[in-house]
Amino acid sequence: MGFLWALIVGGLIGWVASLIIGKDVPGGIIGNIVAGFIGSMIGQAIFGDMGPDIGGFAVIPAIIGAIILIFIVSLILRSVNKK
C-alpha cells in the first residue's frame, strides 16, 4: 500500500505544480508522477524537509522542485520544437 500511496502523492504533486506554472506535463498521468518524484528529489536537495510530510514527500519542497522541473522541461521542449 505504501508504494501505491507514493504514486498517488507523486502524481498529485506533479499535477499541482503543472497547475501553478500553467504548463501541461508531457506524458499525462505518468508525466505527473515522474514530475512529482523527480521534483521531490530536486526540491528536497535544495530546500530540505520543510513543511508537512505526506507519503514520504516533503510537500512544499516537492512542489517547488516539480515547478522547477516542469519549467526547465518546457523550455527544452520549446527550443527543440522551434528547430
UniProtKB/TrEMBL annotation:
Record's bilayer topology term: Multi-pass membrane protein
Main location per the UniProt record: membrane
Origin: domain of life: Bacteria
UniProt keyword terms in alphabetical order: Cell membrane, Membrane, Transmembrane, Transmembrane helix
Transmembrane segments: 6-22, 29-48, 54-77
Sequence similarity: Belongs to the UPF0410 family.
Protein name: GlsB/YeaQ/YmgE family stress response membrane protein
Source organism of the structure: Exiguobacterium oxidotolerans
